[in-house]
Amino acid sequence: MLESMHTNPRPTRAEGSDVENAVLDGADCVMLSGETAKGAYPLESVSVMSKLCREAENIFFHSAHFNEIRSLTQHPTASPETAASSAVNASLEQSCAAIIVLSTTGQSAGFVSKYRPRIPILCVTRDAQTARQVSLYRGVYPYHYAREKVEGKSWQTDVDERLYWSMGQAKAAGMLKEGDNVVCLQGWKGGVGKEIIHVSLVVILMCTHQATQIPYVSCLYLKTLARYSRRQASKHNFQDVPTIDIESIDFFRKSCAVVVGFVLLISVICYL
What we know:
Layout: H1 13-24, H2 34-37, H3 42-58, H4 62-72, H5 79-94, E1 98-102, H6 107-114, E2 121-125, H7 128-133, E3 140-144, H8 155-172, E4 180-187, E5 200-207, E6 216-224, H9 230-233, H10 246-271
Parallel strand pairs: 1-2, 1-4, 2-3
Antiparallel strand pairs: 4-5, 5-6
Helix pairs in contact: 1-3, 5-6
């Protein structure tokens, strides 16, 4: 993309525009080949491309891009993508500092990256190959969690430990500080969704620092339930899962509309 830097320490205006347009068009990454492999200015090429990408990121309209991607996405979407979209939307509304994704395959991190949040995506995984692969997704910072699973330990306890660890790593890297809001995306239960459809939840966390531990306080808890077939639902117990009656939502919506209409009518009568 910076072909002239084979022999020159500065790129042409057209090459600089190509790099910035690639970022503004939503490219996940940009690449240098001959400039660093056999060019006379390899370090300068990397430095210039980094500066161009940073400048383009500063003028990238994340909210508009997010709404455009959502409008172009076919519905119904898969449950992991629905949760990822909700996580990005929550990060925009809550002015969060980061999105933490606990993933085994890296698919959830890819879905979050698709909607282009303005904050870093911290992908925590035990799979070293997944950690390398998700580096190609835009805005994703992989964290390889090397600790093995301990037999007898509950799944939620393991999730909490990974969250504590990832927030500590991000705080040490300067990505998080005390008082920041963080969106956490995780599975509803262990596994990668082979036996049952993956169910994700979004949690807004308050990152605080006390001594050597980094506890979190839950501020917002959103659960996205997947569609289960009758055969799959018969294998699992969903008595403890909170559900929302659709008829109750419609009744509440109609009631609000009637109240608003009545208030507007009274306002018009008083004005006349």
